[in-house]
Amino acid sequence: MGIRYKLVPRKDFSKGALEDAKLYYPQLLNNGNITFDEVCEAVAEQTALTRADVKACLDRLAYIISTNLKAGRSVNLGDLGSFRVALSSSGATTPEEYDAATMMRPMKVVYTAGKSIQEIRSKATFDRIKTEEAGG
């Protein structure tokens, strides 16, 4: 099964478009979720680890990523990808006028997919679902 989507009409904002003109765009249809416990179980089934071992490892991984991001480090996880912090702020005319407490926005965590995860871009297939099948 491929990645499911349906087509939805949206207002055409292109220059010269009529007032009520519409264009159809794909909208992703979620094919379900997998829980943390299900991920742990799946990894345990494919390795010599127990579900509790996997759970403990992933719990520590989240802690290690968080701790290192707070320290301003990037975290590289090989084929899984990497995490880094990104800052955003309004600007000041001079360095003396800059006040991080009022001008700095909350930091963002940027995830960049690793090679094995990025491969889905070229290998993924798509299944168009008619509106009636998609429930809307």
List the helices and strands and how they pair.
Blueprint: E1 3-11, E2 22-28, H1 36-45, H2 51-70, E3 75-76, E4 81-86, H3 100-103, E5 108-113, H4 115-118, H5 120-123, E6 126-128, H6 131-134
Parallel strand pairs: 1-6
Antiparallel strand pairs: 1-2, 3-4, 4-5
Structural write-up:
This protein has 136 residues and is an alpha+beta fold. The protein is built from six helices and six strands; from the N terminus they run ββααββαβααβα. The strands form two sheets. The chain has a three-stranded mixed sheet with strand order 2-1-6, with no helix packed on it. This is HU family DNA-binding protein. It comes from Parabacteroides faecalis.
Q: Keywords, please?
A:
136 residues, alpha+beta, three-stranded mixed beta sheet, three-stranded antiparallel beta sheet, 6 helices, 34% helix, 24% strand, flat
Number of helices: 6
Helices and strands, in order, run as: EEHHEEHEHHEH
> What is the average per-residue confidence, as pLDDT, rounded to a whole number?
92
| Large-scale geometry | flat
| DSSP helix fraction | 25-40%
GO molecular function: DNA binding
InterPro entries: HU-HIG (IPR041607), HU_DNA-bd_put (IPR005902), IHF-like_DNA-bd_dom_sf (IPR010992)
Protein name: HU family DNA-binding protein
Domain HU: 1-128
